[in-house]
Write a structure and sequence with these properties.
Shape of chain A: globular
Number of strands of chain A: 8
Number of helices of chain B: 12
CATH class of the domain at 207-351 in chain B: Mainly Alpha
Mean pLDDT of chain B: 96
Low-confidence stretches of chain B: 1-7
Helix content of chain B: 40-55%
Order of helices and strands of chain B: HHHHHHEEEEEEHEEHHHHH
Oligomer: heterodimer
Mean pLDDT of chain A: 94
Shape of chain B: globular
CATH superfamily of the largest domain in chain A: Butyryl-CoA Dehydrogenase, subunit A, domain 3
Structural class of chain B: alpha+beta
CATH class of the largest domain in chain A: Mainly Alpha
Helix content of chain A: 40-55%
Radius of gyration of chain A: 23 Å
Strand order of the largest sheet of chain A: 1-4-5-8
Low-confidence stretches of chain A: none
Strand content of chain A: 5-15%
Largest sheet of chain B: 4 strands, mixed
Radius of gyration of chain B: 20 Å
């Protein structure tokens, strides 16, 4: 057990300064403001600068080939979060890159990987379907073989970042008659292929995602990842990572759970709110002098610290659930000026709690709903068995 | 720079986040799991309910070194860390062991800090020391959770820390936590010794109360996990409409939520202990935070565990009901958790 500050060597301290200097230069208030406006959670200028200065290549490469070691990777990640670097598209790119390295044809690897390092190529996830929900295996988007190509038809929800990406990591159904885990084939589909239409969709937290329509999209076979009808195996690695079921190493240099990034954002907002409520007002009284305020703040902090401590799958449910549970109380104790969003005159905490409240529903569905993870905990940790679902209702006889 | 308060708390500084136990700690944990499992089965717990205390179990526990380990070496103890002590407390809670170990450990550590741990009998546990675990320290008569079995009782009386001794032990009163609680009136003590006074003394007492919340939280984690295990086992074997009720999400999701509470609260408690051991100024109130969380969640978990077992769960003889009443009573011994919550809020406001 160890929660100590890591003492940095001179070289590592210099690395940290270099990281901070880079982020100070490129991640400006203007970048953050623009990101809130677009909801993109991606900034091409920042991303290309990271590519140009070698940060993206260093993230991807193993340590033996010039990549970041665990300590520096951790430093870099923490500094990126501190600077509020837009992260969603960088994150999906990293998740899919591993699959390309493992399953991509030599031709596709040569086409894509160098440009991932330069920042020119970004990747998004084509998983969820409009009527599919959290079960990625219920896939109706069809891919049909046509000579050396495949023809794809269908649609996908929540392809976040597609309008800033060059390829989509797409789940298709290549054998509708097979059991669902033996019917899937994965493709890396170039997003400039004719027949692809990207339609933007704003979410209640202010982010932007997309619905992507695929109409007779012709994709060469070289873009297939893994075996035909063997897509489930290709998906398992990225899914395990996204679900946060991969165990933490014992050096304490990684997140305790997959939603710690979001949880830490919540924590910085709560810390700031605590500071605000501890300030004297014009009447010489602090809001915290009211025990009804102090109690709700203390209780919110307690719940949050428990959530931040919970490991892997437990943590992802705890963080998303806690955000939902405490954000209304945080708004109440800040008073009616907590209704004002960021950059609004007189906003109680610059819109921090107000945004948490709108963000919390998202945190409880992306990467799988809270129910998916409660099912997994019940089945795999507690051994309660597979959830029992009632049979579909039979059509009524006419 | 964003993400950092004006004075100090920095959520992005490079701290290790390593919750793993050392080999020694894993052995300690296994040893006390075995001890409590074998020496404090439910029959023993039930049999001790009239007095809230099993003297024989206490003597066996002390013989393992469980009281001396908690004290510093300069008073004859073994200098265990608070994290080590949370491991023992968790196993104690798991079996509802009817021994005042948490109170004695926190009170005797306080005496050691005050230079008042003046007899080896405290180290060995032959003499039991109790304390009033409430932050608000009301004047006059107060309920002390181990008051009926203690040889000495330490309380805060205004700015004074006083040690009370009674020629006849105060009478145990029945209580929902099945604790050996008694009403203690400092004015009625046969001997009343002021051990220390002033702000530093009060700070030492608050530290003892923070440690009490730490170890009580650890005990509530063990308690909640065991009641979950009992309920899960029941749910796997109880059928409705031809399926085990454990496969119904109306049952499995509340049970999963208890597992989440246990996982989060356990790690928070250990992190709180680590900071009290190593950097108390950096995170002084995480034990209070864990306590506020568990004072709410442990009884909720125990209620759900009873509910899952339906008519069998609510039986006064069921294991689940034994956990239910203690989940409520053990936390309540510390008074209204509002005091701990306010303490957390004030500390974060200062650090932000």
């Amino acid at each position: 057990m160890d929660f100590s500050l890591v003492e940095l060597s001179d070289e590592d301290a210099a690395f940290q300064r270099r990281a901070r200097a880079f982020l100070d230069t490129h991640v400006t208030d203007e970048v953050r403001r623009r990101d809130r406006e677009t909801g993109d959670n991606f900034d091409e200028g920042v991303h290309l600068a990271m590519g140009a200065e070698g940060w993206l290549a260093a993230e991807r490469a193993p340590e033996s080939e010039g990549g970041l070691n665990r300590l520096r990777r951790r430093l870099w990640d923490l500094e990126k979060r501190r600077a509020e670097v837009p992260w969603v598209t960088a994150g999906t790119t990293a998740i899919v890159t591993t699959s390309i390295e493992q399953y991509g044809s030599p031709e596709v690897r040569a086409e894509v990987l160098p440009k991932i390092d330069s920042g020119e190529v970004r990747l998004c996830l084509g998983y969820t379907e409009p009527d599919g929900g959290s079960d990625v295996a219920t896939c109706k988007t069809r891919a049909v073989r046509d000579g050396d190509d495949w023809i794809i038809n269908g649609s996908k929800m929540f392809t976040t970042g597609a309008h800033n990406c060059q390829y989509v990591f797409l789940i298709t159904n290549t054998d509708p008659d097979a059991p669902k885990h033996k019917s899937l084939t994965m493709f890396l589909v170039p997003l400039d292929t004719p027949g692809i239409e990207i339609q933007g969709l704003r979410t209640v937290d202010g982010d932007r995602t997309n619905i992507v329509y695929y109409s007779d999209v012709r994709v060469p076979d070289k873009y297939r990842l893994g075996e035909v009808n063997g897509g489930w195996a290709v998906l398992m690695g990225p899914l395990a990572e996204e679900h946060g079921v991969v165990d933490a190493a014992n050096d304490g240099l990684q997140d305790v759970s997959i939603l710690i990034h979001q949880g830490t954002t919540m924590a910085t907002r709560v810390d700031r709110i605590a500071g605000i409520l501890g300030q004297e007002g014009s009447d010489g009284r602090r809001p915290l002098d009211d025990r009804a305020v102090a109690y709700r703040l203390g209780r919110s902090i307690a719940r949050m610290e428990a959530a931040l401590s919970a490991p892997h799958m437990f943590g992802r449910v705890a963080i998303a659930q806690t955000m939902r549970d405490i954000s209304p109380d945080l708004m109440d104790i800040l008073g009616s000026a907590s209704a004002l969003p960021v950059d609004t005159e007189g906003a109680a905490d610059d819109g921090g709690a107000e945004h948490l409240f709108r963000w919390a529903p998202l945190c409880g569905i992306y990467g799988g709903t809270l129910e998916v993870f409660r099912n997994m905990i019940a089945q795999h940790v507690l051994g309660l068995g597979r959830p029992n679902y009632s049979q579909p209702a039979r059509a009524k006889a006419h | 720079m964003t993400g950092q308060g004006a004075h100090g708390m920095d959520r992005y500084e490079l701290r290790r986040q390593d919750y793993s136990l050392s080999e020694d700690q894993t052995e300690l944990q296994a040893a006390y799991a075995k001890f409590f499992r074998s020496r404090s089965p439910l029959e023993v717990v039930r049999a001790a309910e009239p007095g809230g205390f099993d003297k024989n179990l206490w003597e066996q526990l002390c013989a393992t070194g469980a009281t001396s380990m908690a004290l510093p070496e300069d008073v004859g103890g073994d200098g265990a860390t608070l994290v080590d002590l949370t491991l023992v407390a968790e196993e104690l809670g798991r079996t509802l062991a009817p021994v005042p170990w948490i109170d004695h450990v926190c009170a005797s550590r306080l005496l050691a800090r005050l230079g008042a741990c003046d007899t080896p009998d405290i180290v060995t546990g032959r003499e039991i020391v109790a304390l009033d675990p409430r932050f608000d320290a009301p004047p006059g008569r107060r309920l002390v959770p181990s008051g009926s079995v203690a040889d000495r009782i330490v309380v805060r009386d205004g700015d004074d820390l006083v040690r009370l001794e009674f020629d006849t032990r105060p009478a145990k009163v029945d209580n929902i936590g099945k604790l050996p609680a008694a009403w203690i009136d400092p004015a009625a003590a046969d001997r009343r010794t002021v051990l220390a006074s002033g702000p530093e003394a009060v700070a030492q007492y608050d530290r003892a109360l923070e440690e009490w919340r730490l170890l009580t939280s650890a005990a509530l984690v063990g308690l909640a996990e065991e009641t979950l295990t009992i309920a899960a086992e029941f749910a796997k074997n109880r059928y409705t409409m031809g399926v085990p009720i454990s496969t119904l999400q109306g049952i499995s999701h509340p049970l999963a939520n208890i597992a989440i509470v246990v996982a989060g609260a356990r790690n928070l408690t250990r992190r709180a202990g680590w900071f009290l051991d190593n950097e108390p100024d950096a995170a002084p109130v995480l034990a209070s935070a864990a306590f506020v969380y568990l004072a709410e969640e442990a009884p909720r978990a125990a209620t759900m565990a009873v509910h899952v077992q339906g008519g069998l769960g609510v039986s006064a003889e069921s294991a689940a009901s034994a956990y239910l009443v203690r989940a409520r009573g053990w936390a309540l011994a510390g008074g209204d958790p509002v005091d701990a919550a306010v303490r957390v809020a004030e500390s974060f406001a200062t650090q932000a």
